[in-house]
């Protein structure tokens, strides 16, 4: 899941916490990338899915991970990539 948003009323301690949770990877706890003023952000997280889970369950799991950080925010965009749907093309072996 990728959530793009903006912080609302983030204080100095919150800015420091967001900076400490920075990164580019997808983890269950989530990582932030942000602008220089730490007002706009991208939150990336990995949401484990059951066989019948869809985008709604993934979105709820991602928002729970974001809420766990405890910072006030407004969501601007959510994006889901279901890894179960990705097909890996293997190069054919020599003829």
> What fraction of the residues are assigned to beta strands by DSSP?
15-25%
Helix/strand/pairing category? alpha+beta
Q: Could you tell me the mean pLDDT?
A: 87
How far is the first residue's CA from the last residue's CA? 40 Å
In the sheet with the most strands, the strands line up as: 2-3-1-4
**Segments where pLDDT lies below 50 for 5+ residues?**
none
**Major pleated sheet:** 4 strands, antiparallel
- Order of secondary-structure elements: EHEEHE
The number of distinct helices, counting runs of at least 4 residues, comes to: 2
- Determine Rg (CA atoms, Å): 16 Å
What's the total count of β strands? 4
Helix amount, in percent? 10-25%
Global geometry: elongated
Which helices and strands, and how do they pair?
Blueprint: E1 2-7, H1 12-20, E2 31-34, E3 40-44, H2 55-68, E4 73-79
Antiparallel strand pairs: 1-3, 1-4, 2-3
Provide an overview of this structure.
The structure is a single chain. The longest helix is centred in the middle third of the chain and has 14 residues, at 55-68. The protein is elongated. The model has no long low-confidence stretch (mean pLDDT 87). With 95 residues, it is α+β, with helices and mostly antiparallel strands. The chain is 24% helix and 23% strand. It has a four-stranded antiparallel sheet, covered by helices on one side.
């Amino acid at each position: 899941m990728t959530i793009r948003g903006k912080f609302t009323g983030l204080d100095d301690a919150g800015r420091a916490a967001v900076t400490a949770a920075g990164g580019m990877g997808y983890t269950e706890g989530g990582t932030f990338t942000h602008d220089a003023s730490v007002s706009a952000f991208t939150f990336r997280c990995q949401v484990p899915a059951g066989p019948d889970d869809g985008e709604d369950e993934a979105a709820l799991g991602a928002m729970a991970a974001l809420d766990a950080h405890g910072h006030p925010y407004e969501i601007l965009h959510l994006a889901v990539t279901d890894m179960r749907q990705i097909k890996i093309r293997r190069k054919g072996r020599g003829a």
